[in-house]
Amino acid sequence: MDIYTRKSWWKWWLAFFGVIIIATSAYFTIYLTKKLSEEEQKKVEQWALAQEKIATLPLESDEDLTLYLEILQSNTTIPVIIENQLGGVDAHVNFDENVIIEEELKKIKETGQEPIEGVEGVNLYFKKSRLLRLLEIFPFIQLLLISFFIGLGYLFFSVARRSEQNQVWVGMAKETAHQLGTPIMGIIGWIDYLKELNPEDEEINETVTELRNDVNRLELIADRFSKIGSDPELQPSNIFDELEAIRGYMAKRAPRKTSFEFPDANQEPIVVPVNSHLLQWVFENLIRNSIDALENGQGVISAEVNDLGNKVEVLLSDTGSGIPASKLKTVFQPGYSTKTRGWGLGLSLAKRIIDSYHSGKIFVKSSEVGKGTTFSIQLPKGK
Predict the structure, then answer these.
(1) CA–CA separation, 111 vs 97, rounded Å?
(2) N or C: which end of the chain has fewer CB within 10 A?
(3) pLDDT tens, 92-132?
């Protein structure tokens, strides 16, 4: 199981436990709400009995009414309306002064609430207390707050992680460029020494020339790494010349069964501001991946250029193994690789170069397993 599959599972597990926490909290809140509602029902019934007892007590009775009066006075939260037998309102308690009681009574009846019947056709209606109403909506408020904080936390975590990754990228790239510098200078010295040993020997001269070409390539790689983390200078360049340069380089190093179908470099130029070294790096990474995706190196790697007005699109395609749909979202993330060797940094670097340094876009335009993949690189033309 690769790192992105594990990360995906962790997200699902975190989401699962989050749902469990929210569901448990909601269930407990609903349970409390139900119990509180039952208690309010009992209190209203006791209040109605106390009201009925006082109303039906004979005037000459000397019975102690202290308990009943305390019951009536204890209700300070539950809104109650007493309706007479004619449908009018005899009394009400715990309603705001600006509330029209008749309208409140109508609303209560529309809920289908069964009244508590009293003597002489008197009916008693009540509303849930403010505390109970707030408790009923508390799970939804809680859900919103938890979701907000989870989203905010994930956002901050992602930003911090991306910033940390960028620092690692920059540090690794610059250290690599620095480490390459010393052996490159040493190799150049040895090349000069070999040339001086026997300047008339054609075989030695040919070997020295090839060594120098490889050293030039190492210097180019070091220069590419040194530009990571800095603001590279962009220069106007013909996109057809850039493609032809990388085609010429990669065609010599690809298997003989690999054919390249690139646009003619002599057609009308399309100029875009690019850093040639870094853009060539992107093309090289994509083409190397395409070669690795071809079965036994047999297949076609093609390029196409589309003028989209204010930007230029370069399509790099192959007839290789393709990318599974489940992996399309992770191909540009560090560490993703379908090969047993390599660190899986090529496409991540390519995305950084195009997005951050050229203000463009790079994405998988299409891919089908067993048929091939097409990458789209979109570069702004600039002013």
Answers:
(1) 23
(2) C
(3) 888 888 888 888 888 888 888 888 877 667 788 888 888 88
